[in-house]
Amino acid sequence: MGMHLKYILSVLLLLNSVATVVVGADPAAVEMAQTANQFLQALAPEQKAKATYPLTDPERVNWHFIPKERKGLPLKEMTQAQRHLATGLMASGLSSKGLIKATTIMSLEQILLEIEQGKGPKRDPEMYFITIFGEPKEAGTWGWRVEGHHLSLNFTVVEGQVGSVTPSFMGTNPGEVRIGTRTGLRTLAGEEIIARELAKSLTPEQRAAVIYTNTAPADIITSADRKARVLEPKGLIASKLTATQQQLLWSVIAEYVGRARPEVATAELAKMRTAGVGQIHFAWAGSTEVGQGHYYRIQGPGWLLEYDNTQNNNNHVHAVWRDLKNDFADDPLARHYSREHPTK
Predict the structure, then answer these.
(1) CB 298, CB 278: distance < 8 Å
(2) Contact by Cβ (8 Å): 187, 108
(3) Ramachandran quadrant class, 169 (left: phi over 0; alpha: psi -120 to 50; beta: rest)
(4) Per-residue pLDDT tens for 91-139?
(5) Across 185-191, average pLDDT
(6) Do the beta carbons of residue 21 and residue 97 sit within 8 Å?
(7) Which end of the chain is more exposed for a tag (fewer CB within 10 A), N or C?
(8) Measured between alpha carbons, how far is 222 from 323 in angstroms, rounded to an integer?
(9) Closest CA to 320 of 194, 197, 228, 216
(10) What's the rounded mean pLDDT across residues 29-57?
(11) SS3 at position 310
(12) 3-class SS at 263?
């Protein structure tokens, strides 16, 4: 077992040992608050000042996935013990699979540094930032973010309930590692392989409806917009897929939603299924062949998944999950503020 996986497993075991469930509270929200406070308590005053912002600060919704400086406390400025607690916070919001994806994405910065030989943007696997918005309380209203190049994970808790786990962005460059000891590594393989299997399974009639253009866009269409645009539904409505194809579609969706901790992901998937396949569209742009530029999106009532792989010779993946109505918990936060500060 590699050191990377051993470290993650040790964090998960620690998290399981310290979490205390408060009767009547959302266990996920309780665990997030507890691990956030453990992290904050381990920081020096100047570190805590960098890591914390008011919940209402505009920085909370200032998300992106490009390589640039962020607000918050970077791993680079943490001790090993503090990093351990930061990873524990991540584990409180992510599934084990989601945590492995996130930490592997961070580690790809070292590979990019070797590939680019210092000629590209600054690459640093320690330039990932933890930012906490508001005061973490088990029945409170607050949020947190972990962000850096190709990673933006946003969590909002409202009155002790997990209100939102989106925007949720993961990307990889390289999409498939082709040099060194990690050759063959594909961090976001499921998002590509299962979707391509679905696309390849289409009949000629289905294919004509799903593939709306032979040229993939240069990036995900919604980019890092604060408010994700409601895109025009394209492609084929999922009710026109066979039962086997629908299973593949749900497997693709689960790759994105399954980034979140299991009970949160289960609840989100249940909401998606309740709307029914008659309201979900699957669309593809570009080639369905391995190694060729491609894009797809799966769009349901109120949510959107986008995937693009066109940059760096079609070996650079962007994959995002957006809640078109509730990114950053807009809806429950609005209700919370209306109760806390009713109009006179």
Answers:
(1) no
(2) yes
(3) beta
(4) 999 999 999 999 999 999 999 999 998 777 889 999 999 999 999 999 9
(5) 98
(6) no
(7) C
(8) 12
(9) 228
(10) 99
(11) coil
(12) helix
Distance CA(2)–CA(253), nearest Å, equals: 29
Give the integer Cα–Cα distance in Å for 237 and 216.
20
Give CA–CA dist 148/153, Å, rounded: 9
Q: In terms of DSSP bridges, do strands 211-213 and 281-286 run parallel, antiparallel, or are they unpaired?
A: parallel
Give residue 122's pLDDT: 86
Neighbours of 222 (CB within 10 A): 18
- Residue identified by tokens 């580690």 is 107
Answer whether 295's CB lies under 8 Å from 307's CB.
Answer: yes
| Range with the poorest average pLDDT among 9-18, 39-48, 113-122, 330-339 | 9-18
- Supply the pLDDT for residue 1: 45
Residues whose CB falls within 8 Å of the CB of residue 81, separated by 6 or more in sequence, listed in order:
42
CA dihedral of residues 32, 38, 39, 43 (deg, nearest 10): 150
Complete DSSP assignment for 311-336:
HHHH--EEEEEEETTTGGGHHHHHHH
Q: Tell me the two tokens of residue 319.
A: 């994959």
Give the tokens for residue 308. Answer: 């693009």
Q: Determine the Cα–Cα distance for residues 85 and 291; give it in Å rounded to an integer.
A: 39
- For residue 300, give the H/E element and its range: strand 294-300
Residues 186 and 174 sit within 8 Å (Cβ to Cβ): no
Contact, 202 vs 260, CB < 8 A?
no
Give residue 288's identity as a one-letter amino acid code: T
| pLDDT on residue 162 | 97
Tell me the pLDDT tens digit for each residue of 196-210. Answer: 999 999 999 999 999
Whole-number pLDDT of residue 271: 96
| Chain position carrying tokens 């895109």 | 231
